[in-house]
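A note on notation is needed here, since sequence and fold are reported together in a single record. The reader may check this reading against the record printed directly beneath this paragraph.
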Amino acid sequence: MYYYAEKKNISLLQETSDKAQVFAQKTFNKLQEYHPEAKDKVIPRVENAKPASLVGEWVLSSFDLNKVKELTSFAPKKLSDFSLHFDTEGQVSGTTDCNGFFGSYTKEGDSLQFGTLGSTMMYCSDSHETVYHDILSHIDHFELTESGLVLSNAEKGIRLLYTVK
């Protein structure tokens, strides 16, 4: 189970993992009371398990755009407003601080590219939606890590970190 914490609160993730492990151990101990033959069994601890697939819902938790001057205006008030949902059919959708959007993506190995993105047409002052879509258009790589999903373009110095929603 993952809990989203804006500002990279990894300790909350670890705390949640630790609580889950304690709960599992207590449950196993109770099980041993009723089934003594299970006493030599061990519950393996899952350390920093990384997501198995790009498919799913992701929430933006941090970003680094320092090398790209035209993108440095991306400074949203609430990172969790920006999300992505990848499906198994090559379709992506998501939210910004203003509208929802949709489009396609192409994945080959660890290469990732977004197709043209469409969006709903609500007007919001001070929205970072246009810059966010521009950032996504530059993405060429993805990586699944213990922290979540990293979308990047090394040449341009773009790095976005998403956690599981």
Observations:
- The domain at 56-164 is CATH 2.40.128.270 (Lipocalin).
